[in-house]
Amino acid sequence: MATRVEEIMQLPARQRVERLSRAGQLFHVVLAQQFSRNFIDDICMLAEMVRRIAGVRIGSDFLRNLLAHRRAMLYFTQPSTRTFLSFTSACQIVGARYNEVRDPKTSSEVKGESEEDAVRVFSQYFDVIIMRHPQEGFVEKTAHLINEMERTIPVINGGSGKDQHPTQALLDIYTLYQAFSGGALVSRAAGAEIDPFPGKKIAMVGDLKRGRTVRSLSYLLCRYPQVQIFFCSPPELAIGEDILEYLREHQVKYQVLSELDHILPDMDAVYMTRIQDEHDVAGESSKIDYSRFYITPDKLKRCKPALAIMHPLPRRLEIHVECDTDPRAKYWQQVQNGMWMRAALLAYVFNTSQRIKDYYLENYTY
Ligand code: NCD
């Protein structure tokens, strides 16, 4: 017989999303479909405020006090450099202490404890679980499991299988805001509306079938129905029909293409990704000509002067290293933005956003 949580996991996404919120605010941060336009605008503004406040000693002391009474568990059972380090850096920025388990062989799972019980244990020690997991849906399942406990704590998704990477999508959107509307970000605090992407054309490139970052970012872009998305991939690695259906539902214009070069000159942003061959069943990636989906300095000559070149990293050859010095390259900025965004998210889940906004407005002009 299915358990209650297994039954919940069978519900349509819309109903599951409702179970991830409390009192009109996100409790768990697990699925990109949870983020409203208002939430995205607010969290980008908060990340920008954190970035500016952290730049001086007195500001970083203020931030470090915010969550000094909170402790985080980082449960990362899938390889990670950036996401792991940016979450630990984010904890340090807002003063939260953290512990980590990265190798389940060092936990009681070797004694036969289920992963479900392992996360139940974490929920008794810590105030938040930040989690990366190889299996689709497991981070979300953890959130529903924790909802059943007497002591409930937020679960934040740091990447779940081929499925979702919602905090990466938030830092990607933040980077796009910076690229397209720069300083306007914090003017929102004064009541200004931000319209960052009117009519912008964004290409998503590479392994779109198995890349979770593109999937989560596509969900977010549905909050900006005026954008146009161009999905460019080898036919074998095309974006999932579930994402396209979601885009149609939200009336976002898109095209599915098996080439990149002919549309490049017309793009405002290109989001490059590596081939996700760790998901191969029988070496199928080696038979695919991925080089058609590379960016080179030569190709960049034909692109717009304000193009934003993005990549969640790690990269292989899809962006030649010579492109790194081009001012249009935004991927190192994305790395840094991940830290500010995750610090903002931690402040948000622990209801301290307002303190950051107040501090910012007292000490800075827009
Ligand atoms: C991505 C991931 O893990 O999904 N990396 C990251 O978190 N920045 C992308 C990838 O591994 O290709």
Entry summary:
The protein is of the alpha/beta class and 366 residues long.
Could you please describe the fold and organization of this structure?
The protein is built from 13 helices and eleven strands. It is an alpha/beta fold. The protein folds into two domains: 190 residues, Aspartate/ornithine carbamoyltransferase (Rossmann fold), CATH 3.40.50.1370; 166 residues, Aspartate/ornithine carbamoyltransferase (Rossmann fold, 3-Layer(aba) Sandwich), CATH 3.40.50. Helix 3 packs across helix 8, helix 3 packs across helix 13 and helix 8 crosses helix 12. It is globular and about 55 Å long. The protein starts with a helix and ends with a helix. The structure holds N-carbamoyl-L-aspartate. N-carbamoyl-L-aspartate binds next to helix 5 and helix 9.
- Rg over alpha carbons: 20 Å
Distance between the termini: 57 Å
Question: How many domains, as an integer?
Answer: 2
The CATH topology of the largest domain corresponds to Rossmann fold
How many alpha or pi helices? 13
Helix content: 25-40%
CATH class of the largest domain: Alpha Beta
Going by helix content, strand content and strand pairing, the class is alpha/beta
Q: Which parts are unreliable, with pLDDT below 50 for 5 consecutive residues or more?
A: none
Specify the CATH homologous superfamily of the largest domain: Aspartate/ornithine carbamoyltransferase
With strands numbered from the N-terminus, the spatial order across the biggest sheet is 9-8-7-10-11
